[in-house]
Amino acid sequence: MKRHNSRLVSVALLAAAALLSACSSGGGFRTETINFSRESLLEDGREEKMTFTAEVEVPVGDYSEEVLRACRFDIIEALGLGCETVVENADIPSALEYAYNKFDQDYHQSASQVLEAFKDSEDSSFMASLNWEMDLRANFMIPARGYQSLYFERYTFLGGAHGQGQKGALCYKLASGERVKLDNLFTEGSREILSERLSDALVRQAEQEGFLDALFTRQAPASESFYICEDGICFIYGQYQLGPYYLGCLEIMLSWDEVSDILKQ
User: Fold this and answer.
1) What is the pTM of this model?
2) Are residues 251 and 237 in contact, defined by beta-carbon separation less than 8 angstroms?
3) Inter-residue contact 12 to 58 (CB < 8 Å)
4) What is the pLDDT of residues 31-84, one digit of tens each?
5) CATH number, domain 7-180, options 3.30.300.70, 3.30.565.40, 2.40.260.10, 3.40.449.10
6) Contact 257, 231 (CB under 8 A)
7) Are the C-beta atoms of residues 164 and 239 closer than 8 Å to each other?
């Protein structure tokens, strides 16, 4: 197979750092946005290709370099970019470049095998596996109640019937920029109570939206993937974790009133 050189469509680092909009809490990470977009043709003269796009907000100021570096590593890990490949300062453009090159390599290797396997076949259904796609997103949300959350999405299509989507969120203290986990928010021994309330909320949501019978389970464990907003705390669950593919990644919101008695003061 003659391999086409990867073509850079656009790689833009938006140099103007904009202060995020603040709610009543004020403040937040100051960020720059990295837009990364590339594609690689399967072969010269063919239409099949691989595309790789990313839009990632990167923290650049208002906190110590140690805090900013930790946040950048969080983003790299959350998007699955390969932490072992980046330098000490957690360089996200380098991590995106590495991830693209790895995806491109895997694409051409897989496509070569498919073409070889079906070279004498009259069945053209295999052509669906010759177009791959990856799309990555990571954006900071509006600060709320002394916290700010980073929402991220990862979509991968490797041919076939459908792609795979992942969603998640990380949360940080506005005052220090430090990562906040579940045990930092809720009182000791309250996970079982939290899970019960999430399970009740899941059933209510499923009844309202008409997918109750599709659920794999009606028990929702307390997810470590959550974001904080003015309405409450929203917990994110991956594809297939609670239900079938078509339900996607489910999000369950608990209002502040629903968790007020188990929050740390």
Assistant:
1) 0.86
2) yes
3) no
4) 999 999 999 999 888 889 999 999 999 999 889 999 999 999 999 999 999 777
5) 3.30.565.40
6) no
7) yes
Which residue, 82, 111, 103, 104, is CA-closest to 94?
82
Fold of the domain built from segment(s) 182-262: Actin; Chain A, domain 4 (3.90.640)
Residues facing 57 on adjacent strands: 33
Beta strands in the chain (DSSP E): 7-13, 18-19, 30-41, 49-61, 132-140, 147-157, 164-173, 179-180, 226-229, 232-237, 250-255
Q: What is the pLDDT of residues 123-134, one digit of tens each?
A: 777 787 899 999
Distance, CA of 28 to CA of 21 (rounded, Å): 8
Question: Is the four-CA dihedral 80, 82, 87, 88 of positive or negative sign?
Answer: positive
